[in-house]
Amino acid sequence: MVDTVSAESLLLRAGHGEDEAFSGLYDLMSPRVYGICLRVLRDRAQAEEVAQEVLIEVWRTAARFDERRGTALAWIATIAHRRAVDRVRASQAAGDRERRAAAESADVPADPVADAAAQRIEHRQVRRCLKALTELQHRAVTLAYYGGYTYQQVAALLDAAVPTVKTRIRDGLVKLRDCLEASR
Amino acid sequence: MSDDVHALIGAWVLDAVEDDERRLIEAHVAQCESCSREADELREAVARLSDTLVTEPPPGLRERVLAEARRTPQEPAPARRPRPARRPSRWRHPRLRLAVGAAAFAVVAAFAGVFATWQVMRGPAEDESQMTAVLEAADADVAFQQAEGGGRVTIVYSADLDRAVVVVSDLAAIGDDRSYQVWLVDAAGQVSAGVMDAGDSSATMVVDGVGDTEVIGLTSEPAGGSDQPTTPMIADVALPA
Description:
The complex is a heterodimer of chains A (about 180) and B (about 240).
Chain A: H1 4-15, H2 19-41, H3 44-61, H4 72-91, H5 97-103, H6 117-131, H7 135-147, H8 151-158, H9 162-182
Helix pairs in contact in A: 1-2, 2-3, 2-4, 3-4, 5-7, 6-9, 7-8, 7-9, 8-9
Chain B: H1 2-7, H2 9-13, H3 19-30, H4 33-48, H5 60-71, E1 96-97, H6 102-112, H7 124-136, E2 141-146, E3 152-158, E4 163-169, E5 178-186, E6 189-195, E7 203-208, E8 215-222, E9 235-238
Antiparallel strand pairs in B: 1-2, 2-3, 3-4, 4-7, 5-6, 5-8, 8-9
């Protein structure tokens, strides 16, 4: 589990140009950044390249982080996901079957970091909260997040109406948020 | 329309929207404090979806990232919570009470000096009637300030209507790769009130939901605007109390 308090202080210090704080932040956050890139891109070489871009963007723009608006984890994970999705959309035709098949599972494909007990608990929380979603909410959210699909593509993949998918994604995330907050 | 955009907040925080939709939502969220809060909360939940993805990166990555970071200059901190006290008492007519109707337009035009070149930034017809309502409101007040680098910002504000008309005129010329952006600043920080067209140095806009705003600020940003100011305020007009 990432110690979010120290992630925030490291990010704030990195924002003041402290190399050492950035090294510490790398150690805390790079497995998550790389994992997000690997999951969305499903290619180790590309994931490594995009992860490097993401981490440099974190360094470059660290002063923009505003701790009143959220955690360092969310700030960094947001940059990573956005960059990975931009890359996958630029490099892959939509509707790739292999990507689709793998997209819906929340499991990591290979070599996870040795599971600390706290981390296993977090995994369980996320999986449990995902299970609290309706099937359509669950599939829409996971295809979008893990697969990098747009909601229109998700609608096509699930053979569902576009406005329905848009609504289910939002309702699903609200439910996910409430569930994760309740299990803190 | 705004309902449609609002419904996309979930898809947006999942990066599951097309680029043009992304721009629409970002413009919407920048002007809607509750939407921005909702997006921040949902983003925390979305980030947790990556809990299960944590994977040891390849061993060479650390050294490459740290070496590149050492060579990479950082962006300066964005201006946060600029203080009205920074440039006090540059008011010439801090509490001018407006006359109504055509006379009010004339007063604003006199301050702004650009009546003939007003550009309405949103739906023209709707904006014009909203603007008239502000100018005619019984509690309307006017404030203005010279902007750093030239030009001025004039504000007509009605607390009753919770609405302000912002007239920006003759600011320092900027290239087509920059936009002037208007910000609502309160104790909690600032939100975008609107982005002027790239390269433009004069514009008029109606700002709804002024709320607790203490200061209306103005910055120069990359064309299309920023989520948060990236340069110091060139004007920070305190709203008439």
